[in-house]
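dude i think i finally got it to work??
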Amino acid sequence: MALGLVTATPATATDTFNWRTNQNLVSADIQSGELSKLLEQVASLTGWQVFLEPGTTRAVSAKFNNLPPGEALRLLLGELNFALVPETNASPKLFVFRTSRQNATLLVRPARAAESGSQAKLIPNELIVRLKPGAKIDELARLLGAAPPPQLQLKPPPADGRIIVGLVDTAVQPLGGNLDSFLLKQLSVAGEAELDPNSPLHGTAMAETILRSIQAMTKGSSSVQILPVDVYGPNPSTTTFEVAKGIAEAVNGGARLINLSLGSDGDSPFLHGVIQDASAKNIVFFGATAHSCTASSRTRALRTLSFSGLPGTRPSPRRFIRRPIKR
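look at this
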């Protein structure tokens, strides 16, 4: 989930491939690309499991702007067949084939995993400091020309018996029907989002997914509520600082469960510390394993809690202890 806009170059340096997962829109300008490289990028950017029929090749050439994924795939894949199959408790599966879907058996490895290997990739423009007791970090921040680090205070969960799921994601649009009664008042840590009723945001889709899962488990009778926390605002991407702040807002708003459908190709000790603090207060985290993140960040998170994805975005200039994240 970069958290938002991701740009990839499947072929030459002049080729561009943008998949905005939070807006469900795809743009491409590819003169001549390899099918295998393109599918590696799709797997990396979407978190889908991609399967290709062995021996299938194609010279990819396409140019379009802001198309839904289905239309984009049709132009990218040309005469090839494809099927996107949703999964209940896993990421969707994309099958690309010439003859039949059953023959698409070759699992395509995501591009980022192939390029970065098992080493966690440090994201530039983050400064981590450790101070001796008594040192004044605000003064150090002033000398560096940066904002002082935030003090995120986590309150213990209330003992009123309510079950609240903190949805740390994009903004959540109205769901319609009686579903909106399951949503608490939305919080935002990144400004007011621009909501287009004709373009569902990722947070909206996640809220519907959570409610469908609850309905399946409880046969439609539940008092669970969702607390949406928008960490994107009007922006196509966010940072680990906003995600950490969003977690604090969710916990302090009474959430006992935190959903983070985010991904990253780097580690953030600051965000990891906030998650550890919340976990120590018996807050349970759920993350999307399919989203791109390094083996190091996955393992590190799993050592402390049930969480298997860390966020990542682009660097925010002159931010103190803020790591970039993408989705």
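The chain is about 25% helix and 20% strand.
im so relieved honestly
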